[in-house]
Automatic annotation (TrEMBL):
Similarity section: Belongs to the HAD-like hydrolase superfamily. CbbY/CbbZ/Gph/YieH family.
Pfam families associated with the record: HAD_2 (PF13419)
Single GO MF annotation: phosphoglycolate phosphatase activity
GO biological process, one term: DNA repair
Species name: Treponema parvum
Name of this chain's protein: phosphoglycolate phosphatase
Transmembrane segments: none
Length: 234
């Protein structure tokens, strides 16, 4: 067991690849969007590999792949496709999406132990909130933060700072949670980078959606398959 675990009082989770397996729904939304604009579909695994840096990057990469071009695309075209994708995905985000094994049990036990929790995702905040609400777990988190609330997305630590501030508002008369007492849990390199940039502890989830090789290269403090496996540390 890692020695610092006993000191953890706040945990920040990424969403896709950590809390939910949303690969199938996101890939299908990407492909329906491409078809709507008269473009060819791309491989599901390829579409999933584009996830992790926000919806705009997902669409930029998917368009480039479908068009088989490395040239820059017109911003107006990207924005139009992005708007259609976000609207479609918001309506179809829960067709095949599921919670990862053990996650609901994990956060229930963490709550009982008094550990505060928040979500920081590069996914649109309203969609993240709706999904967590659908699975009846939104109330476990002191904050659900998306890119709309930030100037800079992960790996910038701005979202983690907001999450820590929200968690500290709920600690009552207890001593505020410090960065050293905070754990960032993510499945992609940008999640662990955000944790390093923020100065908190980090956990890499290897069975999520992110590139495993890039994730492990960031040398997180803890490595697990699924986030639910964190229960063994607490």
């Amino acid at each position: 067991m890692k020695n610092f675990i006993k000191d953890i009082r706040g945990i920040i989770f990424d969403c896709d690849g950590v809390i939910i397996d949303s690969a199938a729904d996101m890939a299908e939304a990407v492909n329906v969007t491409l078809e709507h604009f008269g473009l060819k579909r791309i491989d599901e695994q390829t579409a999933v590999s584009f996830v992790g840096n926000g919806a705009k990057k997902l669409i930029e990469r998917s368009l480039a792949c479908s068009l088989e071009t490395k040239s820059s695309l017109e911003p107006e075209r990207i924005d139009a496709v992005l708007r259609w994708y976000v609207s479609y995905y918001a309506e179809h985000a829960l067709e095949r999406t599921v919670l990862y094994p053990g996650f609901a049990y994990l956060i229930e036990r963490l709550m009982i132990k008094g550990i505060k929790m928040a979500v920081v995702s590069n996914k649109p905040q309203n969609i993240t909130h709706d999904i967590l609400s659908y699975f009846d777990i939104d109330e476990y988190f002191d904050a659900i933060i998306g890119p709309e609330q930030l100037k800079n997305m992960k790996p910038d630590p701005e979202g983690l700072q907001q999450a820590l501030e929200a968690m500290n508002k709920s600690v009552g008369n207890l001593k505020h949670i410090s960065k050293d007492e905070t754990l960032m849990v993510g499945d992609s390199a940008v999640d662990v980078q955000a944790g390093h940039n923020f100065g908190c502890r980090t956990c890499a989830v290897t069975k999520g959606l992110g590139d495993k090789e890039k994730l492990l290269a960031e040398k997180a403090d803890i490595i697990v398959g699924y986030a639910g496996e964190l229960i063994s540390f607490f």
